[in-house]
Design goal:
The protein is of the alpha/beta class. It has one domain (46-198). 36% of the residues lie in helices and 14% in strands. It has 5 helices and 7 strands. The protein has helices at 16-30, 42-59, 112-118, 135-154, 174-186; strands at 76-77, 88-92, 96-99, 107-108, 162-168, 189-194, 197-198. The longest helix is centred in the last third of the chain and has 20 residues, at 135-154. It starts with 15 loop residues before the first helix and ends with a strand. GO terms for molecular function: transmembrane transporter activity. Keywords: Cell membrane, Membrane, Protein transport, Transmembrane, Transmembrane helix, Transport. InterPro entries: ExbD.
């Protein structure tokens, strides 16, 4: 009679350390890089907005090309320097004040005699006829200042203050010019350029 068959020896059990190592290896082998299934365009929109504003400013009409008329005649100067292209245009004609490219008058001016004595009408001022602060002009400059601030930041310029190009009629009374300059200063405009017609001295 043959001897009874011996059972096969039991397989050695894997240790916990080897099991965890094999598990980590399998996870690394089967792991996939996360796929980007969305596109965050917020930053791209901000960049495109700045570029668009910059391009619009660059291709805008030059302040030196403002047409003259009976209502607006520029003063003459013997200076030969090129006009500044950086700044918000403020037009002061015989009958109205305009800001930027908006054809809507910001302030309708009274007759020259009143302008020479007390400037614009008291209804446009903050605290009576003797005040120098012109409220409608300040409101328009505030909007222009915000746009110019973004443009200056996009160009790498100091956005803490803006520049203004004043296109004033040659007969503008001193009182009116002072009111415009004062309102500009109160609206964070720190530098002004007065547009003139340059030519040789006669």
């Amino acid at each position: 009679m043959s001897a009874a068959a011996q059972p096969p020896p039991p397989k050695p059990k894997a240790s916990i350390v080897r099991y965890k190592a094999a598990l980590r290896k399998a996870i690394r082998r089967n792991r996939r890089e996360p796929e980007i299934d969305f596109l965050n365009i917020t930053a791209m929109l901000d960049l495109m907005t700045i570029i668009l504003v910059f391009l619009l400013k660059s291709v805008g009409s030059s302040a030196a090309s403002i047409p003259q008329s009976k209502d607006l005649t520029l003063p003459k100067s013997v200076m030969q320097s090129e006009p500044s292209q950086e700044g918000v245009v403020v037009i002061v004609s015989k009958s109205q004040i305009l800001v930027g490219e908006d054809p809507t008058p910001i302030v309708v001016l009274p007759n020259r005699e009143q302008l020479a004595q007390s400037g614009v009408d008291a209804k446009y001022k903050r605290s009576g006829p003797n005040d120098l602060y012109v409220v409608p002009l300040a409101n328009a400059l505030s909007h222009a200042r915000e746009t110019d601030k973004a443009i200056r930041a996009a160009k790498g310029l100091d956005p803490s203050s803006s520049e203004a190009i004043i296109v004033a009629d040659a007969t503008t009374p001193y009182r009116l010019l002072i009111e415009v300059l004062f309102t500009l200063g109160q609206s964070e405009f720190g530098k002004y350029h007065l547009m003139v017609l340059s030519g040789n001295k006669q």
